[in-house]
Automatic annotation (TrEMBL):
Gene3D superfamilies: Carboxypeptidase-like, regulatory domain. Keywords: Carboxypeptidase, Hydrolase, Membrane, Protease, Transmembrane, Transmembrane helix. This is Carboxypeptidase-like regulatory domain-containing protein. Pfam families: CarbopepD_reg_2. GO terms for molecular function: carboxypeptidase activity. The chain crosses the membrane at residues 88-110. It comes from the Bacteria. InterPro entries: CarboxyPept-like_regulatory (IPR008969). It comes from Hymenobacter polaris.
Amino acid sequence: MALTANPFHPATGELLPSYRDAYLRGDLSAKNTELVDAYLKANPSKGSEAYYRFHTLQTTGHSVRPVGWLDKQLNLLRTEPRRFRHRAGSLVLVGALISGAVFAASGPVASSKDSFTSTPVTATTVAEAGELLAPESVAALTTISGRILNEKGQPLVGATVLDKRTHRGVSTDAQGRYSFAVPRSQHVQLQFGYGGYQDADLLTKGQSLGDVALHPRTDLPKKRWWQLF
């Protein structure tokens, strides 16, 4: 069933992560798809996050079906690489788009009416699209995964993993697990956080970090409970 509720945060106006994922699966209503299309078009950095998330979902076995603005961008990469190359500078971290298209072409993706998977993305297409881009923009992606735990070894649900350079982030599931797409051959500083706990900053170069344990903050005032008679 297509999701019809408002996909944006009522206070900040940002696209909610659950609705972003629904958009990448093609599960939003037609109206909400149009709203998300307009949002991603107006916010290139959020478009970049969507590309990375698409890649993460695809490589971890989730069913994804690009629609609307995302489908158009992927089709543009496939069919008009030279034109895309000259306008790529307006897209933040366009390497995510290239890598996502390559993975999508080589793996099972739910089909849509004009799916970009009908014509495989070739090595030549990718090379032409990235010819004028900075080396870091076309770095291959890899997905790292792990768990975030508390000081007792219990999973922290909704803990966050943040790339401190790009400010992209994901949150953990009910088991404290996360999956995150990062450049394969570049050092990335990740910040692991949870409310009331001390942040942990760790460096990775495309390698999973395993379990990360967070500890309660000691600078917070202790809560006092008063019993009234």
